[in-house]
Design goal:
Low-confidence stretches of chain A: none
Number of domains of chain A: 1
Number of helices of chain A: 2
Distance between the termini of chain A: 27 Å
Oligomer: heterodimer
Helix content of chain B: 25-40%
Structural class of chain A: alpha+beta
Strand content of chain B: 5-15%
Largest sheet of chain B: 5 strands, mixed
Radius of gyration of chain A: 14 Å
Helix content of chain A: 10-25%
CATH superfamily of the largest domain in chain B: Periplasmic binding protein-like II
Shape of chain B: globular
Mean pLDDT of chain A: 92
Number of strands of chain A: 3
Order of helices and strands of chain A: EHEHE
Shape of chain A: elongated
CATH class of the largest domain in chain B: Alpha Beta
Number of domains of chain B: 2
CATH topology of the largest domain in chain B: D-Maltodextrin-Binding Protein, domain 2
Number of helices of chain B: 9
Number of strands of chain B: 6
Largest interface: A-B, 41 and 51 residues
């Protein structure tokens, strides 16, 4: 079984991924997919950013090597 | 998956069309897809110099609550808070859709990505066969502690706002347009270089493998 960890996702942007996890569709393809959790150190508020210099939490776990993919 | 984003105003707002949001404060979660969708909806209705935004929190429920408290005149929401807002009498003055795009490093194994794609493709087919069956997912995660969301029934959801498509390689013209548009807002700098942004070798191999496995 291949293994992969992705950053956490929500239904509004990744309903397909959540359903695939719950209904065993990834494991049926030989993939053990897990979702990493963000720790408090990974979370900064978007209100700290500006339009041209935004603050986003997407990609932080990927940068640290704790997730292979994230949704941009 | 295709994300639906709606530009929403409170029930007592004098705004009925997006043009009336010129010089009005719109709360956006800068740096996220919904914020860029909001900018595009505004830009389609008013001159760029009349687009007036402020930073808002990323949590859509908290952003909706801030709008209802009068901290800004409008905001952009995604499901299930679009449905919550509509039930509360808010008006959607514009709605748009955008792609959620997966990002990975250059060391991603195409076989791994192909297995991911196959799982997603099977899920898309299942969901599209009976969307109503899966709307309960919108009540989980961020929405789990939100009383207004938890009060929604499956019939409350507008299934037209839940759109899923089987994943495809990223179209270069769309990626280039998005880069140039973001650069025009000062979010990105430099010129678009497709070879730096999209690894066509990994992408191509993964999609080919996924297609071979049906």
């Amino acid at each position: 079984m291949m293994k992969m960890t992705i950053e956490p996702v929500s239904a509004f942007s990744s309903l397909d991924v959540l359903v695939a996890i719950d209904e065993g569709l990834f494991s049926g393809e030989g993939l053990d997919l897990t979702m990493a959790s963000r720790e408090s150190r990974d979370i900064r508020s978007t209100t700290e950013g500006t339009l041209s210099s935004p603050v986003t939490n997407q990609g932080r776990l990927h940068e640290r090597g704790d997730a292979s993919m994230f949704q941009g | 998956m295709i994300v639906c984003a709606a530009l929403v105003v409170p029930p007592d707002s004098s705004v009925y069309v997006p043009q009336e949001l010129a010089h009005r404060k719109v709360g956006l979660d800068y740096g996220n897809g919904t914020a860029y969708a909001g900018l595009q909806m505004l830009e389609g209705a008013v001159p760029r110099e009349a687009v007036t935004t402020c930073a808002a929190v990323i949590h859509p429920g908290e952003r909706y609550a801030a709008m209802m408290r009068g901290e800004f005149d409008a905001t952009v929401l995604q499901e299930p808070w679009i449905t919550v807002a509509e039930k509360a009498g808010c008006r959607l003055v514009s709605t748009t859709f955008f792609h959620g795009t997966w990002v990975a490093g250059p060391d991603l194994d195409p076989a791994l990505y192909a297995a991911f794609l196959r799982g997603v493709i099977r899920a898309v087919r299942r969901i599209n066969a009976d969307k109503r069956r899966y709307v309960s997912y919108f009540k989980q995660g961020w929405a789990a502690g939100d009383l207004a969301v938890q009060a929604l029934t499956p019939d409350d959801f507008n299934l037209g706002r839940i759109q899923l498509r089987e994943p495809t390689p990223i179209p270069e013209d769309e990626a280039r347009w998005a880069w140039d548009w973001m650069a025009s807002w000062g979010v990105l700098h430099g010129s678009f270089d497709v070879t730096a942004q999209i690894n066509r070798k990994i992408e191509g191999e993964a999609h080919e493998l996924a297609a071979q496995s049906g």
